[in-house]
Amino acid sequence: MKLRRIAAVASKEWREVTRDRMFLLLAFLMPALWMVVFGYGLVLDVEHISFSVVDRDHSAFSRDYLYRFSQSRYFSFQRELMSEGEADAWLQSGRARAVIIVPEKFQERLLSGQPANIQTLIDGTFPLRADITKGYVIAINSAFNEDLLVDHLARSRGLSREEAQRRLHRITLEVRYLYNEEVRSAWSTVPALIMLSLMVSSPLLTALGVVREKETGSIYNIYSATVSRLEFLAGKLVPYVMISVVNVVVLWLMAVLLFAVPFKGNLLFFLSTSVLFVLASTGIGLIVSLLVSTQQAALIITVVIATVPTILFSGLVVPVSSLGQGAQLQAHLFPGMYYTNIVRGTFLKNVGPSVLWTDVLALAVYGAVLGAIGYRLFTKRPRV
Amino acid sequence: MRSSDDIAIRRVVVWWRRLAVMTRKDLLQLFRDIPLMGFLVYSFTFSVYVTGNGLQTQLRNAGLLVYDADRSASSRELIHRFHAPYFRVDGELVRPEEGFERLDQGGSMLVLDIPARFHESLAAGEPVALQLLVDTTNAPQGLSAAGYATRIVRQFDLEAAITTIGLAAAPSTDLPMIVSDHRVWYNQDQNETWFESISHLLRMITIFAMLLPAAALVREKERGTVEQLLVSPLTPLQIMLPKVLAMTLVILGATAVALFGVMLPVFGVPIRGSIILFFSLTALFVVATAGMGVFAATITRNQAQVGMMTLLVVAPMLLLSGITTPLEAMPDWVQYLMALSPLRYFIEIAHGILLKGTGLDVFWKQVLAMAGLGGSLFGFGMWRFRRQFR
User: Are residues B124 and B206 part of one domain?
Assistant: First the structure.
């Protein structure tokens, strides 16, 4: 293994990359652009759920109850409907995601001290949205109930409202949010987006770079050259790893300066684990490139095995702990999850190697295993 | 007269035959790429299965640690109310400071701190404060967990207060309270496998529909084989359309495999609407999405470029079109931007046909938007392609 040969392969590869202006531009632009689009766009606060009402009571109470929904920022009132049949049509067409039905004698029952039923129809096609909608309905409902109970208690026992309130409300739950004290969506997505951008771009760059050589046939020059397998692979990967490392720095700067995410951890630790992650994810691209012979296949396969599991199973949107078993397994098979722990840990939690060593170890093992497989798979004497 | 008619008919026959031959050529080229076909099968079967089975976007199993300084009937009763599916009690802490360490390590998400004399205070009607630490490195999930916890504690408080005060024998019968009854339609059990498997199918269709024709078209350009085709009697449309047709056929086949091989028998996804309509509109969606790919192919010079270019567009489509997170969660500008994504319309259509059993009368607007979008992208790509090889 000679450094000079590695440098020669690397400089050839680098020239090829820089000659293709558009490719070079996209290699740097894609992660940065994603960061902007997802950083500002991937907000997960569900608001303005469109809803309609069927009010059969038309009383002061029913209007008061429904008003609490329409003035909440979580709901967006569409219009009043006449019948349940109409409610059905509105749900079917998606014009309303929820319909609240107030029965007759709603006010009468409540005033006489009896419970009253309210029915809420929810569009269940998107379970997460249905679940969130249900949560909001329950919250608004229980706030209204509490007022009703306080009134009831005050009236029946001859207490003041404050006293009644005090008697019914004895436990306060003091919630303290840790790590992301203001609970900003961007603070939790932006660090994970560094992971997403790298996880997608570095294998893709590598896979395309290597397969291009196979597809155009220029790899035969390498087969007949004195350069060894290891030298070729190392030299080939250097430019792509370099691009990704530059991207790490750019993305980190964007997170800290543009999105103002606090960086509480150790920068050196973050950067070194990031390089490790880039190496591990580059390994995926390498393996793909050795298994296929067309860039079309390399492109699709890399996207299917790098992008999709990363979006779904790396903790970006859904925490790994709430995944099913098969999906958990898939999460552990890809480096994205480990790096998400590291990124969120160093950005928000200020934890270091003492806590994150398992993740670092996993990335190192991952990179080493992929490298070894890649070395075994690559041959200078292909059978075709 | 007759002979000119004959010529005209023959022309049409020849035109279609050329199209058929080219489509066959593109199909052959696809099927020969064995790794690619292997991944196509994987994407539409195993991958759909794992995602449908494993992805849970609602809060599930949020790890809760408890520091119970009271160890009374009340505190146990309260802890008992934090249960599956939302919470998972990860154990009790011996020291209160341990909570921070455990959250630092990850694994658990919440720490509930119950003070001493909790039970006595409640019995005496005195105010009492509990503390909940929430890990918000994943902000939406943290908020959601805190919301559930608040709801549980509030309900516990209210029920205990009603019994202590002696307002009613049972809290639900003799009190002026509103019982909110929810009925979730189209998916009563809020079965996430239906939604996730449909979403994943759409995800895969989008990726293949965009990337396959784009890469195939650029490959011909890159290798120069397109020059050969252009000097042949073929028109540019006859070169481009077969690619899209071949991919559409393959993708429709794969969709059928996913639907009838995995989603229907394994997950029991209902098909409440017309299956023919579903496949026709899937074809329209594939062509519309392919239009984006074709467009990308005309502004790039090699496969590496087109790969990056399409991916640049595909990832935001996948994440922001409403198949991963609800559209209601997104800022206005994203919702406007996503008006350009055919996927945004197709998700409504797929849910409509499969889950709601609706037809064209309900979602004709979405179909129109998708057709318009696909048509204009395709037309624009076609125009650029013609101009490049004039």
Answer: no
Domain span holding position B92: 62-174
In one letter, which amino acid is B168? A
| Torsion angle (degrees, nearest 10) of CA B183, B186, B188, B189 | -140
Say whether residue B84 is in contact with chain A using an 8 A CB cutoff.
no
Q: B50 with B68, same domain?
A: no
Q: Which residue of chain B is at minimal alpha-carbon distance from A44?
A: B329
Between CA A194 and CA A313 the distance in angstroms is: 15
Shortest CB distance from A121 goes to which of B50, B185, B334?
B185
Model confidence pLDDT, tens digit, residues B65-123 = 999 999 998 899 999 999 878 898 988 998 888 888 888 888 788 999 999 999 998 88
Same-domain pairing of B313 and B244: yes
Q: Is residue B344 part of a domain?
A: yes
Q: Which residues contact A99 (CB under 8 A, 6 or more apart)?
A: A51, A52, A53, A54, A81, A87, A90, A91, A120, A121
Name residues 336-375 of chain B within 8 A of A (Cβ): 337, 348, 351-352, 355-356, 358, 362-363
**B326 & B355 share domain:** yes
Same domain for B304 and B267, yes or no, is yes
Say if B15 falls within a structural domain. Answer: no
A321: tokens are 């702990």
Residue A260 near chain B (CB below 8 Å): no
Collect all residues with Cβ–Cβ distance below 8 Å to B330 and sequence separation of at least 6. Answer: A41, A42, A43, B320, B338
Interface predicted TM-score (ipTM)? 0.84
B316 and B281 co-located in one domain: yes
Looking at the complex, does the CB of residue A33 fall below 8 Å from at least one CB of chain B? yes
Q: How far apart are CA B169 and CA B162, in angstroms?
A: 8
